[in-house]
Design goal:
Number of domains: 1
Number of strands: 7
Shape: globular
Structural class: alpha+beta
Largest sheet: 5 strands, mixed
Number of helices: 5
Helix content: 25-40%
Distance between the termini: 46 Å
């Protein structure tokens, strides 16, 4: 037996904006949703930076300090903690040379495919690839503006993967203690075992 329940009729016009935004993302200039990211019903281009920052705030905390590997010049971006294959790095800290301005800065790098997984972990309802694409278009101060960032992963075959490069000193929405810890390499005040055994 199939039991059907008649749903209350809704005014189709209330969904017009969301439908048009899905079909034609640049057609409407929708008002910005000011609710916390996790409480929003739908996501639009306007939400991209909010989502990006939301994820960064979740993962850039003292307890995750050992998830970020400091990489020296010409070093490789290992994905796994030494002698602990079940403990993976999320990001990498490196002095980045800007070829255009001839200056350097302390950068936090993510493999783009890994950052997509991090977004999915914390917010399943959005499209991670579109979020990254929209943030790159907006060119916020904390994102290094480079056309196609790549990072080496295997020295033997010189293979590389797409990368996201962030300027740590511009991440002003992250706690100052954590930003300083990433820049200096000194763990912030928290109970973090140096071998990462706290994390799975």
């Amino acid at each position: 037996m199939i039991i059907s329940e008649k749903l209350p009729e809704a005014d189709p016009s209330q969904y017009r904006a969301q439908i048009l935004n899905c079909l034609l993302p640049d057609y409407l200039d929708l008002p910005k949703d000011t609710r916390p990211v996790e409480q929003r019903d739908t996501f639009t281009t306007h939400d991209a930076q909010d989502i990006f920052k939301f994820v960064l705030k979740k993962i850039l905390i003292p307890d995750n300090f050992n998830r970020y590997l400091r990489v020296e010049a010409h070093g490789l971006f290992d994905q796994e903690y030494p002698d602990k294959s079940d403990y993976k790095y999320w990001g990498y800290i490196k002095t980045y040379q800007d070829k255009q301005s001839k200056t350097s800065f302390c950068a936090l790098l993510f493999r783009e495919d890994e950052f997509i997984d991090l977004i999915k972990t914390h917010l399943e309802e959005c499209d991670p690839k579109q979020i990254i694409k929209d943030v790159k278009k907006e060119k916020p101060a904390y994102l290094h503006p480079t056309g196609k960032a790549r990072m080496p992963v295997h020295k033997a075959d010189q293979s590389t993967v797409n990368a996201i490069i962030l300027k740590i000193d511009k991440l002003d929405f992250i706690e100052e203690d954590m930003r300083n810890a990433l820049i200096t390499g000194e763990a912030p005040d928290s109970e973090i075992p140096i071998d990462g055994s706290q994390h799975q």
